[in-house]
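We emphasize that the prediction below concerns an isolated chain of 204 residues; any contacts that depend on oligomerization or on bound cofactors are therefore not represented. The input was used exactly as deposited, without trimming of termini.
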Amino acid sequence: MKKRKPSYLMIFILFSISSISLVDGNQLPKKQLSKGADVIFWDPKIKLTWDDFQGKPDEKSKYKASTYTIIDSKVNTRCDSIVDYDFVCSFGKKESWKKITTTNLLKHEQLHFDIAELATRKLRKEFLDYKFTSLDSINPMINRIFEKAVLTRRTLNNQYDKETNHGLVSEKQKLWEIKIAKELTELERYSKTRVVIKRVRSKK
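Result of the prediction step, given as a token string:
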């Protein structure tokens, strides 16, 4: 196949996923994206501020803040010999909102973003571990690893909110911060957004 121009595949369409985390505290990266100022790439050196939560609060919600995270796939090259993707974790400013602006709540929200990055690193790892033998197998593989990333993020977010009571249990919040930081470090080699796999030729 011919090389394709880079193109982002958006939310739940062609291998993209997004989610809303409704909780009680967090911080997050502040970086302008090629997709515009409404999105922030995850970055270990940059933390969110409350100014990044620009969405209209859901007054019917019992939660104090909502963090909207996105895992995107960007196709760089798809051909018989090589498959080259970018998998990017980002934060949606216009979809994220807050009702109060406490430091503890911001910390809690930051970790929801970190959890999304962790799920993305696991996705990249699975992509790189895949034995690419035919181009026809790529779409099913990417669908599978995205579904797994969705489940990982959802499961961790739910467990995190339950154990910390949305950030209100400070001891549990700290333990979760340590846990996620440790797991991100363990998957540091998968922190680069670009992942490339080459076709495995069958031996004759």
